[in-house]
Each structure stands twice: as C-alpha cells, then as structure tokens.
Amino acid sequence: MEATNQLTGIIRQKIREDGPISFHDFMEMCLYHPNLGYYTNTGDKIGFQGDFYTSCCLTPAFGAMIARQLEEMWHILEKGPFTIVEYGAGTGMLCRDILAYLKAVPELYGQLRYCIIEISPAMRDIEKANLTEKVSWRDRIEDIEGDIHCILSNELLDNFPVHEVVMDDRPKEVFVDADEGFHEVLIPANGEIQAYFAEMGMAPAPGFRTEINLNARRWMKGIGKRMERGFIVTIDYGGCSDELLKKHRSYGTVMCYHNHKAHGDPFIHIGEQDITAHVNFSALMHWGDSSGLRTQGLVPQGMFLLALGFREYLREIYEAQQRDVPTLAREEAFISHTLLFDMGMKYKVLVQSKNVPSTVTLKGLSPLQQSPTH
Fold this sequence. Notes:
Elements: H1 2-18, E1 21-22, H2 23-32, H3 55-58, H4 60-76, E2 82-87, H5 93-102, H6 106-110, E3 112-117, H7 121-130, E4 135-138, E5 150-154, E6 163-166, E7 172-178, E8 182-188, H8 191-200, E9 209-212, H9 214-226, E10 230-239, H10 241-244, E11 255-258, E12 261-263, E13 274-276, E14 279-280, H11 281-290, E15 294-300, H12 301-307, H13 310-321, H14 325-346, E16 347-354, H15 366-370
Parallel strand pairs: 2-3, 2-5, 3-4, 5-10, 10-14
Antiparallel strand pairs: 1-7, 6-7, 6-9, 7-8, 10-16, 11-12, 11-13, 15-16
Helix pairs in contact: 4-5, 4-13, 9-11, 12-14
C-alpha cells in the first residue's frame, strides 16, 4: 500500500506540473516506473500465487511444443548454431521447459544459445534463480552479438503501453487528469495516431473506443533491422483488425488483473495490478511486412499445440507419473480444455520470418494448409 501511495503521488505530481498525461504514459508509469511499477517492484505476479497465470504455468507440455517447433526451425536453418532470443521471460518457466525438451536433441543443444531480454531487475532476479545453464541476459536486442535465429515472446505485447482513442468527428486520444482521483479527458489525437487509422484502413464508428500499440511498431521494426535470417514467434491474446472493430469491442479491450480477478478500472491498485490490451495482429503483420519480414501464418494457440502433438505428449507426462487414474484424467481434461479451447482460442500464434524460403511449411502452422479455401 505504501508503494501504491508513493507511485500515485508521483503520477499526480507529474499531472500538476505538466497537465493531463496520455493514457499511454499513465500505463507505462503504472507498469514500469523504476522500483514502483507493477513489473519492476518485487512480489509474486505470475502463477497461482500471483495475479494471473500464463500457459506455461499449467504444464511443461506447452514449452515442449514450442521446443518442437524450434527444433523444426533449426532443421530448416540447416542445423547450425542456433540463437533464441526471448523477450520478457516472466519467471523463466517457458525457457526452462524449452531447454529441458531440447536436451534430448544433443546436436541442437550443443549449438544452442538462449538470450533473454528483460528490462525489469525484479523479474530478471526471478529468472536467474530458475535458470542455471545456457541462458544469458541483455537489456536490448542490439546488445546481442552474432546471428539471431528465433525471436520468441509469450504474452509480452499485451503489456506494452497503448494509446487509447475514442472516435468522434476526428479521433480523440484519452488523457488522464487528477482531482480527487484519476479521470479521463479527451484531446484531439496527434498526426501519428490519425495516420495509423489511415495506414491500417480502419474506420471505427463514432463513439468507438480502441487502442493503438505504437510501441509494438517500434519493437517490430527493431527486430526487422537486427535479424538477418530466422523466425519470429509471437504468442498473445488479441485478434485482427476486423475482429477488434466488432460491436462488442466498442468499449475497448483494456483489462486489469489483481489477485486473479479481472476488471476494467486502471485507476485503482496503482503499481499493484497488471494492465493489458488486446494485440492487433493485423498491425503486427503489416509492420512486419514493412520491416522486411514475411508472415508465415497466424493460428489459434490450440490449433498450433494440437498440430505439434500436444495431446499425445501431455498423456505421456501423466502416464509417467503413475498416480491414480481418476485424478490424472481430471487434471489432463482440465489442462487440455484450458490450453486448447479456453486460452487456446483466445490466444494466437503469429510466425514471421526473414530470408526463409516461401515454400517452408511449419508443423505448428499446418492447420492453415488443411483449412478449406473459399
């Protein structure tokens, strides 16, 4: 509570000095203010003891399927030295499960280098406690020497600060002001935000609220500039532009998570709750194209996992535990339903590449080839 009051005071002071701040800047301070932001302070955030859990918290089979896809990419890239870069590794569980699986592929594991880009000192300490081999840490992608063959992110971009926009006769950006508490004010959007709608061909209806993730554009451009040949795997929840412009999204997609409870008020629990927004995958593909990347495919997470053999692998894990059959069956059913159908439909897997032949078909994206054409 003391940290919350302190960060609240810092934000209020900034507003007193500079006037209302954009929701983007408010979200950035809440999540990433040094020592006081949600992701920079200490304390449990990810997992059943925190505020939310990710797919890799449920079973190591999730990381194993990602590893299977990485192994196929290594084969496509001619089985040479292989550098994986993971952005924002959380507690390090996904990295741990990927490495555990790839140990069974000695030729790959011997040539493997795993780099984590982590801007939060608190999260980096947690990752280092859980990861003891093959891993090194960097502050930014430019600090990584040599070739990069795969860039991986799992539930990263939904935490990038976003610009909130409400459509009127012209787009108006949401700013945050303060009196007794924080509240919104609308200010005509700048040229960059107006250009976004024109560039993306988006025309939200009057009164429609939506988010623009310009940080993701800069992130994508940085990747395109740094990578020479390889793959980019982005796993997150969201949709394409047409889905995000449907009527039921007219109030925007910003959500907050505190003690595993979801709500829509970013002006409480300052620095003590996660703030997220849906990822626009149309924008990621568009910005990737303009940065020299090619879209390999976009599929729901559930289809991606099924194509890589998730069900069979999960069953092998449970059979090896030799516990009572009814309990194992219930746990297996719960995890399968959550990762394949619940989170499996909400979350998407986007794979992009650079200087990889267009004829390459990845196993995780094979459902795209099986879909009927219209």
